[in-house]
């Protein structure tokens, strides 16, 4: 792995899914990785070639927890923010408790970690700040409006961070996976409409289609491979879709009228 930033890496959501794949890939390629998650067994694993992965508990939704772990680091060269969760249900009915939880983890969790690690990168004059977003942050998905909203927010945040931090030698990029085979699918918090709801039936079918696509999706290594490539680029793009089909989708979306794009998504998920 070509590395132009340094060997000190920090990865959130590192005990499973995309975070685990990214943390292990960086350690296997010689980085000293601190991986964190809300619930994990705290371990230290050494890899051939000098890499190391240390796992510690940290909750991205808790200010004190983030400050105690991320804030205490002497420096960070590479940050990969993978911690996230999903909720599903109709926008009209989804309980505010679930909507707030979605934003607290996916958006404000990234902001908390960013406030802890970006000053370190600025002070040292270099750094790579990677946020795991989603193609759902560019193409809103029915019955996942709040998840899509959280990823939309990360698109704007990452682009602003890139502009603000560039003059300090820090680069920011949002990685946009599509359907990926991870424990995210089974962990999704699903709101099921009541039998007399206008969304009864269609919501369950829509979510079932999403889950089928996710279980047949790309492996977590598809994302960690992108991370390894970005670590070797001095001037990475601000956003990267994962895999040719999703790169093509993002290109086509720019050409399609919004009305046609919405028609296609409605046919895919709500028909």
Folded structure, characterized:
The mean pLDDT is 94. It is built from nine helices and ten strands. Strand 3 and strand 4 form a beta hairpin. Helix 1 crosses helix 7 and helix 3 runs parallel beside helix 4. It is 45% helix and 16% strand. The chain has 271 residues and is an alpha/beta fold. The strands form two sheets. It has an eight-stranded mixed β-sheet with strand order 3-4-2-1-5-7-8-10, with helices on both faces. A two-stranded parallel ribbon has the order 6-9.
List keywords for this structure.
alpha/beta, two-stranded parallel sheet, 9 helices, eight-stranded mixed beta sheet, 271 residues, single chain
Brief write-up:
With 271 residues, the protein is an alpha/beta fold. Helix content is 45%, strand content 16%. It has 9 helices and 10 strands.
């Amino acid at each position: 792995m070509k590395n132009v930033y340094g060997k000190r890496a920090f990865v959130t959501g590192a005990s499973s899914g995309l975070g685990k794949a990214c943390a292990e890939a960086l350690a296997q390629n010689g980085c000293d990785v601190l991986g964190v998650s809300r619930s994990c067994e705290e371990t230290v694993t050494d890899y051939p070639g000098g890499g190391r992965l240390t796992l510690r508990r940290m909750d991205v939704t808790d200010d004190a927890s983030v400050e105690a772990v991320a804030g205490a680091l002497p420096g960070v060269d590479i940050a990969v923010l993978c911690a996230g969760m999903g909720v599903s249900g109709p926008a009209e009915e989804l309980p505010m408790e679930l909507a707030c939880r979605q934003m607290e983890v996916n958006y404000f969790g990234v902001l908390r970690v960013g406030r802890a690690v970006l000053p370190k990168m600025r002070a040292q004059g270099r750094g790579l700040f990677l946020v795991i977003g989603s193609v759902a942050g560019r193409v809103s998905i029915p019955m996942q409006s709040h998840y899509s909203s959280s990823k939309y927010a990360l698109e704007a945040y990452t682009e602003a961070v890139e502009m603000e931090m560039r003059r300090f030698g820090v680069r920011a990029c949002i990685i946009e996976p599509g359907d990926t085979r991870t424990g995210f699918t089974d962990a999704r918090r699903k709101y099921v409409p009541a039998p007399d709801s206008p969304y009864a039936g269609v919501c369950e079918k829509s979510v079932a289609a999403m889950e089928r696509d996710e279980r047949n999706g790309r492996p977590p290594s598809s994302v960690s491979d992108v991370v390894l490539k970005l670590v070797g680029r001095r001037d990475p793009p601000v956003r990267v879709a994962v895999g040719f089909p999703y790169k093509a989708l993002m290109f086509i979306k720019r050409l399609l009228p919004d009305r046609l794009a919405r028609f296609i998504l409605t046919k895919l998920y709500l028909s």
